[in-house]
Write a structure and sequence with these properties.
479 residues; mainly alpha; Growth Hormone, Chain: A; 3 domains; 76% helix
Length: 479
């Protein structure tokens, strides 16, 4: 019985993460497409696009995400996880259609913005739904699917872009939300959401489906859920002042904002968006399509391995190791381009150095990729978590936009090496900040972590409160 119930939850998590796949595909689309858009015969419109327009295409998706963060949080809470999932597909299809039928760069820019507005909803809907259908024993495993499917989407875009034309790649990307709708239709609404809205019989039916009719298990979960709901406050009743009313909360918020900022400025988005351009500039003697696919596959495998080992090592250890590794690889790529610019005839670094360093970089990135969400969950009390994540995701998405848009400015003013050294410095800053300010949360309850942040002595932990506090990692609208 337990195996069957686990299977249904895993299946549902994979289905709902098709939206995360769409997010990865939309980001990966830029890499194989950018060179074609700058060619003499672009696939959309009649004129090749400049570097500035390409940077807008890469960054405006994140600007759309900034606009969509609060919208999807409200939709998910007011109407449910399933209606939000259905609604998410409408602007996504409109965005891809705008790109597919683009007559000039304006259509492309509008399409990318609308896509960003849509796919950011995946980072809100998916964690909520997955967390609320999972049992404690495998909630972390299902939660890691969001990174796996995102990376899978990036790899798919790279791979399909290497064998199909840009127009056919766009059609492929546009078909993914349709596939999602076909499968998502058969899944029940989140039992936690139904229970929170007073629909207790429907919540029980939903939970029975996910637990394959295991009435004993369902009764136990509903009893705990009822206790949690009674002790919780609604998101609407939580004032913004709760985010800075205590010393520990202020520290947790500052740490979370720092983690999400560095995650955007560690160079990963720049590498994924402009990988084909970077490979071309390195003058390596094999196809940039092949190089991009290999980089994407390395990241996919690394993220899968990370999901297996993440609970075996301290959070701080992984953060420090990850940022040191990323800083070294980015510095080395910058050194290559410095040598290429000033010592072209006697370049002491071979052309394959940027490609190898990019592969190593994504491996180190995967070690810390989930840490923003994990540490934020492990340092914030549940009643303020939805509001806090609204602020944090809004901030993180804004930083994503800046990290992509700044690429052209850095290359134009400080050349390729300056661009990579800029992001390398951010990683060094992350190492220093982690050493002095990020608390270790692995194996500790939320109560213990909060006492540490508040400078209090730890006492024996109440297990019921511990369950309520740490049972889920939900960015927005989780109650």
């Amino acid at each position: 019985m337990a195996k069957t119930s686990k299977f249904r939850a895993y299946l549902a998590a994979m289905i709902v993460n098709i939206t995360t796949l769409s997010l990865g595909v939309s980001i990966g689309w830029m890499s194989p497409t950018a060179p074609a858009l700058q060619s003499d015969t672009p696939p959309f419109g009649t004129e090749p696009l400049s570097d500035q327009i390409i940077s807008w295409l890469g960054s405006l998706q994140y600007a759309g995400g900034v606009a969509g963060v609060l919208f999807w949080g409200q939709i998910t809470e007011k109407f449910g996880r399933k209606p939000a999932g259905y609604l998410l597909c409408i602007p996504l299809l409109i965005g891809w259609s705008s790109v597919l039928f683009a007559q000039n760069h304006v259509w492309l820019i509008v399409g990318r913005f609308i896509m960003g507005f849509s796919v950011i909803g995946a980072l809100i809907i998916v964690p909520s739904y997955v967390s609320e259908i999972s049992e404690d024993s495998y909630r972390g495993s299902l939660g890691s699917f969001i990174i796996l499917f995102f990376n899978l989407g990036v790899v798919l875009a790279y791979f399909v872009g290497s064998i199909l034309s840009v127009r056919n790649l766009t059609i492929f990307c546009a078909s993914i939300p349709i596939v999602f709708l076909c499968f998502f239709y058969f899944l029940p609404e989140s039992p936690v959401y139904l229970w929170s809205k007073g629909k207790k019989s429907k919540a029980q039916e939903s939970l029975l489906w996910f637990r394959s009719g295991n009435n004993v298990l369902v009764e136990q979960e509903l009893e705990i859920l009822n206790s949690v709901m009674k002790s919780d406050k609604s998101v609407a009743s939580i004032p913004v002042s709760r985010l800075y009313d205590k010393k520990g909360t202020i520290k947790a918020m500052i740490n979370s904002l720092q983690l999400f900022t560095v995650q955007q400025f560690c160079g990963i988005l720049m590498l994924l968006t402009y990988s084909s351009i970077i490979i071309n500039k390195s003058e390596i003697n094999f196809s940039f399509h092949t190089a991009a696919v290999i980089i994407g596959l390395v990241q996919l495998i690394a993220s899968w391995i990370t999901s297996l080992i993440i609970d075996r090592f301290n959070r701080r250890t992984l953060l420090i190791l990850s940022n040191i590794g990323m800083s070294v690889t980015l510095f080395t790529i910058g050194l290559f381009f410095y040598s290429q610019k000033y010592y072209y005839e006697t370049n002491f670094l071979p052309n394959w150095v940027p490609f190898i360093c990019m592969c190593i970089h994504v491996i180190f990135y995967c070690l810390s990729a989930p840490m923003g969400y994990i540490i934020t969950c492990e340092t914030l009390v549940p009643e303020i978590r939805p509001l806090a994540f609204s602020v944090i995701v809004f901030w993180g998405t804004s930083m994503s936009f800046l990290s992509i848009k700044i690429y052209v400015f850095l290359v134009d003013n400080f050349y390729m090496q300056g661009n990579f050294w800029f992001f390398s410095l951010w990683c060094i800053f992350a190492v220093i900040y982690t050493i002095f300010f990020i608390p270790e949360t692995r194996g500790k309850s939320l109560v213990e972590v909060l006492k540490t942040l508040n400078g209090e002595q730890n006492t024996k932990i109440n297990k019921t409160y511990e369950y309520e506090a740490c049972s889920s990692v939900i960015p927005i609208g989780d109650k």
